[in-house]
Design goal:
This protein has helices at about 5, 25-45, 45-60, 65-70, 80-90, 100-110, 120-130, 155-165, 185-190, 220-230; strands at about 10-15, 115-120, 140-145, 175, 195, 215-220. By secondary structure, the chain is α/β, with parallel strands linked by helices. The longest helix is centred in the N-terminal third of the chain and has 20 residues, at about 25-45.
């Protein structure tokens, strides 16, 4: 089916969250700032330097950043690590949505149902949506961490659940994500139209395993999507 004809049938827009609605690096920085404040209050360590060390380690390797920095300061313990992870996951983030999303989401809501599918846990992701001022826009949110591993992307299950909620066929939905490592395989398998928003996010340059992981369309702004959907 030609793309224009396929897009004319769309009734539901499904969004990813991190690096699709806002730059995820902002969340990382916000969390690192909260952790650095806690370290300063507890140990008197310069919070600006501790923050810089966290961010430098994050740029080198994203896993176990806290472990490495705490060991550098001879502070590592399981108790402190768990405390700082809780701070990171439960803090109220200082994040902002992409400007072009703010400029277009009201127009999307007027014409389409809006849903969201995220692999994050519900509590943490809702905090993000509230901080972004976007929670009110979504009629249905699915947070796969709270449902089970079988729901994690690239599974088709959360997409089928979303379609069942709105009682729509697969060809009536469009999914917008950013990560070719997992975002598009599931919806591609069932015939949901897939769009990658290219925003230079943390996972934007991940290479797809094969052609089934690639989106049907790439855009650089939500204004482009508005034009395609007209």
């Amino acid at each position: 089916m030609p793309m224009r004809k396929a897009l004319n049938k769309i009734k539901l827009l499904i969004f990813d969250l991190d690096d699709t609605l806002y730059p995820e690096i902002e969340y990382v920085k916000s969390g690192f700032s909260e952790i650095s404040n806690r370290i300063f209050n507890k140990y008197g360590i310069n919070k600006e330097q501790f923050y810089c060390d966290l961010f430098d380690e994050f740029k080198k390797k994203r896993k176990e950043v806290l472990n490495r920095v705490l060991k550098k300061y001879n502070l590592f313990s399981k108790e402190l690590l768990d405390e700082l992870i809780r701070i990171y996951r439960h803090h109220k983030p200082r994040i902002s949505p992409y400007k072009d999303l703010v400029e277009t989401i009201d127009a999307f809501r007027e014409k389409y149902h809006l849903g969201l599918i995220s692999d994050g846990d519900k509590y943490r992701q809702i905090l993000k949506l509230e901080s972004l001022g976007l929670l009110k826009y979504f009629e249905k949110c699915i947070f796969t961490n709270d449902i089970g591993l079988e729901y994690h992307k690239p599974s088709v299950k959360p997409f089928m659940d979303m379609l069942d909620h709105f009682k729509l066929a697969t060809f009536e939905a469009l999914y917008i994500g950013d990560n070719e490592g997992k975002d598009f395989y599931g919806p591609n398998q069932i015939g949901v139209f897939t769009v990658k928003i290219v925003k230079n996010g943390l996972y934007n340059r991940i290479k797809p395993k094969n052609r089934f992981y690639r989106p049907k369309l790439e855009i650089k702004s939500f204004h482009e999507l508005v034009k395609y959907l007209k």
